[in-house]
Design a protein that fits this description.
Number of helices: 1
Shape: globular
Strand content: 15-25%
Number of strands: 4
Structural class: alpha+beta
């Protein structure tokens, strides 16, 4: 059985890592990236301004900017 080892770490506008929300764990990079593509608006509404994809606790991709959600 493959253990999930991919997860996201989230930073606020001040660059400090947030303890909430918490990322689910993923078995592969594709699933992790697909998930963030689906939920980035919700994360933004919770104050997330950037996300770092981690593999086994090590950053595995460039930092992803999470833009503020504009309310119409």
């Amino acid at each position: 059985m493959i253990r999930p080892q991919w997860e996201w770490a989230f930073d606020g506008g001040d660059g400090v890592e947030l303890d909430r929300p918490v990322s689910p764990a993923f078995a592969n990079q594709y699933d992790a990236e697909e998930w963030i593509g689906e939920v980035w608006r919700d994360l933004s509404a919770q104050g997330v301004r950037s996300a770092r994809l981690l593999n086994g606790g090590v950053q595995a991709a460039p930092v992803l900017a999470v833009p503020p959600v504009e309310h119409s």
